[in-house]
Amino acid sequence: MNNHLQEVKDRVFQSGIDAILVLNIESSNTVTTRYLSGFTGSFSALIITPKRHIILTDSRYWTQVKSESDFELVKYLPPKTFLDSIAEILSSLEVKKLGLEKDKISLAHYETLVSKVNCEIEDISAIISDVRSRKSEEEIEQIKVAVEIAEEAFRKMLEIVRPGMKESELAAYLEYQVKLLGAEDVAFESIIASGPRSALPHGRASKKVIEKGEPVVVDWGARYKGYNSDITRVFCIGEPNERVKLVHRIVYEAQQKALEGIKAGKTGREIDEIARNHINEAGYGEFFGHGLGHGLGLEVHESPSLSYRNDKPLEVGNVVTVEPGIYLEGEFGVRIEEDVVVTENGCTVLTTLERGLIIL
Question: Which residues are in the Creatinase N-terminal domain (predicted)?
């Protein structure tokens, strides 16, 4: 049994819950499924009791389950509905109280499930999120490899950059390199935004032509063995104007102060405030509209967050992004993003690319 599964069981079953159900209907919850069982397919249900670990799936995945998981395979066969089959298993196990990640299930599926099972349902989303937020050494190593792949792909992309290229051309090349270098996939659709478009925090790559001297924000990542990296850098082809350099320096300094402040016991709000205060003092506070960072792992955005909403202390093993930004509508934007591991007395920065403004 993997340690993640044991910790979740220890937490959940001490509260009187009889069984855990992880419902994954056409990729609705591949993350928790993979985390607890190792199975990476798109259609399954995990039914976990103190003594049994069951996985229910259809014929597309019977062979795959055997190679990826040590869970007990129960074969789902139509025309019986999937939820009816789950209800029958829960009934046979005499489950009276069922633990369910409500934030990973649609309202339609939840209402149908409630109508079919004869048991109380308790939300265990917070428990699973909390367990997942503390990364093991093995998980940190997978994220580190995802970082290394993403960084090498970025270096290769910079080798081909020239004025007149479209953002979408660069994105295609960057994502090709991410996959060529051994990633399962990109972590998300890459953001490559130049000139005035760089003021869009989520400016997906467009047909815009990149021109000399304008800042180009690149936000990209790789996925390796399920775990993601998430990095942002800014480059210019030729010298940018002095305001671009000034804003980049302010963002750089804000990030550096936040990195120096991170350690176990500090809250997400406190770390966010460190960077935000610096940007405020520089006169650009209204142009930093998002949180400082987010948890990173099997999902690109998970717990814990570095934002004013999070008063929970950070813990050893949390992996978070640190990504302050300033966005000047109609002009340009700047964001720099690192991936870091929270330690008892500070943090370990996994990203290694130069954080300064890159001038080609």
Answer: 6-133
Q: What amino acid occupies position 275?
A: A
For the record, the structure tokens of 223 come out as: 């996925």
Of 110, 133, 156, at which residue does a domain stop?
Answer: 133
Contact status, residue 38 vs residue 69, Cβ threshold 8 Å: yes
Are 153 and 300 in the same domain?
Answer: yes
Cα 140 from Cα 14, distance rounded (Å) = 28
pTM of the entire structure?
Answer: 0.94
- 128 with 163, same domain: the answer is no
Condensed to tens digits (0 to 9), the pLDDT of residues 177-201 reads 999 999 999 999 999 999 999 999 9
The number of beta carbons lying within 10 Å of the beta carbon of residue 309 is: 11
* CATH number, position 45: 3.40.350.10
Task: Give the pair of three-digit tokens for residue 259.
Answer: 């990195």
Q: How would you classify the pairing of strands 358-359 and 231-236?
A: parallel
Largest pairwise CA distance in the chain: 71
Instruction: Tell me how far apart the alpha carbons of residues 131 and 144 are, in angstroms, rounded to a whole number.
Output: 20
The verdict on 116 and 162 lying in the same domain is no
Q: Point out which residues pair with 185 in neighbouring strands.
A: 223
| Domain of 200, in residue numbers | 137-359
Q: What is the pLDDT of residues 122-137, one digit of tens each?
A: 999 999 999 999 999 9
* 204: DSSP letter: B
pLDDT digits over 67-96, tens only? 999 999 999 999 999 999 999 999 999 999
Residue 273 shares a structural domain with residue 325? yes
Question: Quick one: pLDDT at residue 2?
Answer: 81
Percent over 70 (pLDDT), the chain = 100
